[in-house]
Amino acid sequence: MEEKTKNKEFLQGSINIGGLKLNISSPNPTQALTEIRRIVESLNGCEEVEDLTCFEMSTMLSEEFVSNNSAMNETKRLLNLEQPYRVVKEFVSAVEEIDLDSSRKQLRLDTKQIGKSVSSLLSAVDKSAARHALVHIKGLLSEQERLIIIDHVHQHIPNAQIRAYQTEQDIEGKVLIEALLFGDFE
Question: In the predicted model, what is the mean pLDDT of residues 47-66?
Fold first, then answer.
């Protein structure tokens, strides 16, 4: 009788850093290692490992936002001023344009679509409570398009101090708008 054995992959381990201990087991090691790497990188961005708020935020935000030193330094500063925060994200479909002269692809957004997307982005948040906003825009947009998005955000939360960050990266004809809002949220 011929015996067949399957090579099963499995990952089991634990991470103990400071006051945080994670036990990990996964039948898919490749996917698990990607998530473990992201968790460890997120923890390295926090000044204090015990600051689970920083860790929690970094799991809700895009990798580009978390890896932006300026954005994370501002996040830490605002956490000291304003403890309550909200994270919101919205993907916006865009029309791709290719400039034949420069062989460069850019996205165009419909102004009405921007307004609807920003309204949807901030719909679950008490806009009057927001005092600070860190807005990250990811996509192949022109500077003018980004400023229009930020202007729409400002129209919805006029009392908030807004800082904008951008990542020029193609995400399949879409634009990601994510915001980290600080204020008197309950």
Answer: 71
